Amino acid sequence: MPQFLVSGYLPDDYDPSTETEATIEAIHALNREMIAAGVRKFACGLGPARAVRSQPNGKVLITDGPYLETKEHVGGFWILETADLDEALAWARKGAEACRASIEVRPIFFAPDPQRAAE
């Protein structure tokens, strides 16, 4: 079955201590539903982003995010294994509602496919 990265975005000034108990419970309820449906393989929240970039002069620069001009960062993600993209998008809709955040869905691919590597 295909796997998908379902990630939620938060503003850079996000403060997790301001979340309501209702939002926290909605996220926990969604996780319980994903587990019961057998689609959730992994889930976690993330802190602020830091990136390490090599420079043309050979030095390394540490920045405060994966992009130079971003105003938001990945705040958490799920790895889901679903029948298809439509099912992953249905779960992502629930994630957007529970987290009150923008959600991105991306297929995970393996090259080479580990199932075929032994052939």
Produce the secondary structure layout.
Elements: E1 3-11, H1 21-37, E2 40-45, E3 51-54, E4 60-63, E5 72-81, H2 85-99, E6 102-108
Helix pairs in contact: 1-2
Descriptors for this entry?
119 residues, flat, 27% helix, two-stranded antiparallel ribbon, alpha+beta, 2 helices
Summarize the structure.
This protein has about 120 residues and is an alpha+beta fold.
Q: What can you tell me about this protein's structure?
A:
There is one protein chain. With 119 residues, this protein is an alpha+beta fold. 27% of the residues lie in helices and 34% in strands. The chain has two helices and six strands. It has helices spanning 21-37, 85-99, and strands spanning 3-11, 40-45, 51-54, 60-63, 72-81, 102-108. Helix 1 runs antiparallel to helix 2. The protein is flat and about 50 Å long.
Strand content of the residues, in percent? Answer: 25-35%
Instruction: Walk across the major sheet and give the strand order.
Output: 2-5-1-6
Question: What radius of gyration results from the CA coordinates?
Answer: 17 Å
How far the N terminus sits from the C terminus, by CA atoms, comes to 19 Å
Mean pLDDT: 85
List segments where confidence is low: pLDDT < 50 over at least 5 consecutive residues: none
Roughly what percent helix?
25-40%
Total helical elements: 2
Order of helices and strands: EHEEEEHE
Shape annotation:
flat
Which structural class do you get from the secondary structure elements?
Answer: alpha+beta
